[in-house]
């Protein structure tokens, strides 16, 4: 089934300000080198590369009161929020190239605002090895890339929970987390307390990826804005080594393709983050190339014509 997609705007957010390793700031360029724009154009998508946002440098300082680089994280997320919101209001689909996953906070805050403005129902698919539901009280590191989901749901410093002046951006009920396999001890209690909908790898092993995705996508309809936040460490490190926080036991290539194809089948994806790609830790840009391959599947590439 061929499907028409809205015009796409690529937005680079080259920072590792929320991460514990240097290198994620090089992710946007690695994805461009792997041909993300060309791959989408080849699928008939109108693509505009807006270039990179320019935010504060990473100071590489220790945490202050449980948060590392909070001022810089706030500034970067504000830039991302404004850029993503501008594209959505212009009728374009933003693809935010990170950068680390703290940037999902700015991206999803913008999407949530747009949904409020347009009366759409938001569904967020969080493809990740980690729940990213830490707070300053339970974080082992202070790295804000482990906190964006908590901040989006109102747990965190006001500068992040009220990024757009309102807050919290979302309720936990709009998120579905897929591929989770690393949750910190204190974080586990918060995830349970707030009722996060988590399809961890054990559940996926038990019921299979197809059923897990059917459940995660249940209720998605023509009034749904589907946002995909794709942390490349979602993938098993045997196929995607180029990330700072590898966790064994993730989805393999075929499972990851199925996830993307089932999202494409809904026809409802309207915004996308690709984050945590760290080319410094990659081998010959293979992780970036795999990410581009998977994005092609998000835009309808499949083995056979399906209807």
Question: Biggest sheet: strands side by side, in what order?
Answer: 2-1-3-8-7-4-5-6
In N-to-C order, the SSE pattern is: EHHEHEHEHHEHEHHEHEH
Taking the alpha carbons of the first and last residues, their distance comes to 5 Å
CATH class: Alpha Beta
CATH superfamily: Ureohydrolase domain
Shape category: globular
CATH architecture: 3-Layer(aba) Sandwich
DSSP helix fraction? 25-40%
Radius of gyration from CA coordinates:
17 Å
Tally of individual helices: 11
State the major sheet. 8 strands, parallel
Tally the beta strands.
8
Mean pLDDT: 96
Strand content: 15-25%
GO molecular function, one term: arginase activity
Binding site for Mn(2+): 101, 128, 130, 132, 231, 233
Cofactor: Mn(2+)
InterPro entries: Arginase (IPR014033), Ureohydrolase (IPR006035), Ureohydrolase_dom_sf (IPR023696), Ureohydrolase_Mn_BS (IPR020855)
């Amino acid at each position: 089934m061929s499907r028409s997609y809205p015009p796409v705007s690529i937005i680079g957010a080259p920072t590792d300000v929320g991460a514990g390793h240097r290198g994620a700031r090089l992710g946007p360029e690695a994805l461009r080198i792997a041909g993300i724009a060309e791959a989408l154009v080849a699928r008939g998508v109108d693509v505009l590369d807006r270039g990179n946002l320019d935010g504060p440098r990473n100071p590489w300082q220790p945490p202050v009161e449980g948060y590392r680089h909070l001022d810089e994280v706030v500034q970067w997320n504000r830039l991302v929020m404004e850029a993503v919101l501008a594209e959505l209001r212009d009728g374009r689909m933003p693809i935010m190239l990170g950068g680390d996953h703290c940037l999902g906070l700015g991206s999803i805050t913008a999407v949530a605002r747009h949904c409020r403005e347009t009366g759409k129902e938001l569904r967020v698919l969080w493809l990740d090895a980690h729940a990213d539901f830490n707070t300053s009280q339970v974080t082992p590191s202070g790295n804000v890339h482990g906190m964006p989901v908590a901040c989006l749901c109102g747990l965190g410093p006001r500068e992040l929970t009220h990024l757009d002046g309102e807050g919290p951006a979302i309720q936990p009920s709009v998120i579905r987390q897929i591929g989770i396999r690393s949750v910190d001890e204190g974080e586990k209690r918060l995830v349970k307390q707030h009722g996060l909908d988590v399809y961890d790898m054990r559940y996926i092993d038990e019921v299979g990826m197809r059923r897990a995705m059917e459940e995660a996508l249940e209720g998605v309809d023509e009034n749904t804005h589907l946002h995909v936040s794709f942390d490349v460490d979602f993938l098993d490190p045997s196929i995607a080594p180029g990330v700072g926080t590898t966790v064994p036991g993730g989805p393999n290539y075929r499972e990851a393709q199925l996830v993307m194809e089932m999202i494409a089948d809904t026809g409802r994806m309207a915004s996308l983050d690709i984050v945590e790609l760290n080319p410094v830790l990659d081998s010959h840009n293979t992780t970036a190339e795999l990410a581009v391959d998977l994005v092609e599947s998000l835009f309808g590439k499949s083995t056979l014509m399906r209807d």
